[in-house]
Amino acid sequence: MDDPCAGAERFRRMTPEQKLRAAQRLYWSARAIKEAALRQRHPDWSDAQLARAVRDVFLFHHG
In this structure, are residues 62 and 42 in contact, taking their beta carbons and an 8 Å threshold? Predict the structure, then answer.
């Protein structure tokens, strides 16, 4: 089993640029997952509707 502290230690050793890139990857992955979930829930929505819904979730979600 992986040691959870090892991941934290790896993160601490990352440069600021590496941390920024990791955060960007997480952000875009989260958007892709949200789009896939919305596409499954609303198969009749157009690509534009999906893009707008994803944008709204990431701009206006509170909590």
Answer: no
